[in-house]
Write a structure and sequence with these properties.
9 strands, 12 helices, nine-stranded mixed β-sheet, about 325 residues, globular
Length: about 325
């Protein structure tokens, strides 16, 4: 009995010591004038992951995915199922009427709303108001009507002050009207372009002094995906680069896996209040972007070990649990 009591006391001591160490580390990173260190980001990521015990459904996150079309039903599925597999409780896919039954057939775990092409402002506003984070773009398409609708949805999210992740065709819509994201409010938006998408955005942003990614204001950041991932923030100390993990295989759908994962991590980081000052939202964006990039690269690496050149995005989905466990638990 005495030995067990000592073990319990020692375990409590280790937990408290670890919590204090993380708090100290986080405070240092928030105040640091240097670029964030990747090992520190990994430790901080572990601290934002919510406990499973004592939680109700929805407390670990409600994510909205706006995307999908009759041509592209896989992209919103990959984003949505990734958000779930990382740990969000509920994921809603808002898509077109003809894409909805196809996406529903992929998984019974997703909640699918089929009214994107029958736009109802009141209905969509109600759904968006319930979301912790919104992802715009996977498989959305590039029709003029869809682009116009995407601009309206971004403005709605801006009014609701919703954390936003913009990827794929959502980035195309931003390229068509870069001012639509101008001065997006806290907790902000994260753009996730690949090299080609980033080049297009750089050319579209009006010439001005300063970095191109600062055009949208201090609460909009960029995760520039590539052989080396580069995170760009208006706060220099929150920027980072990483080429850890991954493989040479670039499977279609990998970016959607990242955007869905990012939504879940973004919500967790914001709710953890990991930086208790006026830079809290920007710091949460940086940590969430790192976590999503790290996880996606790890999934890619593990799937490539098994499948090599024949690896596809569905193979990466199978690795989310193992990658999450290896990297963050």
């Amino acid at each position: 009995m005495f030995v067990n009591s000592l073990k319990y006391i020692y375990a409590c001591f280790l937990i408290i010591t670890n919590i204090c160490a993380i708090q100290t580390l986080t405070s240092n990173e928030c105040a640091n004038t240097n670029v964030l260190q990747l090992p520190n980001l990994k430790v901080i990521t572990k601290s934002i992951i919510p406990e499973l015990n004592g939680k109700g459904k929805g407390e670990a996150g409600k994510v909205g995915i706006i995307g999908g079309s009759v041509e592209y039903t896989g992209a919103p599925y990959f984003a949505a199922i990734s958000a779930l597999r990382v740990g969000a409780d509920l994921v809603y896919v808002i898509t077109t009427e003809n894409a909805a039954p196809i996406i529903k057939s992929y998984s019974p775990d997703l909640i699918v709303y089929p009214f994107l092409n029958a736009y109802s402002a009141s209905k969509l506003n109600f759904i968006l108001s319930k979301m912790d984070v919104v992802v715009i773009g996977p498989g959305l398409g590039r029709d003029d009507d869809i682009i116009k609708l995407t601009h309206e949805i971004i403005q709605t999210c801006q009014t609701l002050k919703k954390p936003l992740v913009i990827d794929a065709d959502g980035l195309y819509a931003v390229w068509k009207n870069v001012s639509v994201l101008k001065d997006y409010p806290s907790p902000g938006a994260i753009l996730t372009p690949n090299h080609k998408e980033a080049t297009r955005l750089i050319q579209a942003v009006p010439s001005k002094s300063g970095a191109w990614h600062d055009y949208w204001g201090k609460y909009v950041s960029v995760l520039n995906k590539g052989e080396q991932d580069r995170y760009l923030s208006s706060i220099v100390s929150f920027r980072w680069t990483s080429s850890e993990g991954g493989s040479g295989r670039r499977a279609g759908g990998q970016g959607d896996i990242l955007s869905g994962s990012l939504a879940t991590f973004f919500n967790w980081a914001l709710k953890s209040y990991i930086c208790e000052n006026d830079q809290s939202a920007q710091f949460a964006q940086s940590v969430a972007a790192y976590a999503a990039a790290k996880l996606t690269r790890s999934c890619n690496s593990k799937a490539y070990e098994t499948y090599g050149r024949s690896m596809i995005a569905s193979d990466m989905l199978k690795e989310i649990h193992r990658a999450f466990k290896d990297e963050f638990e």
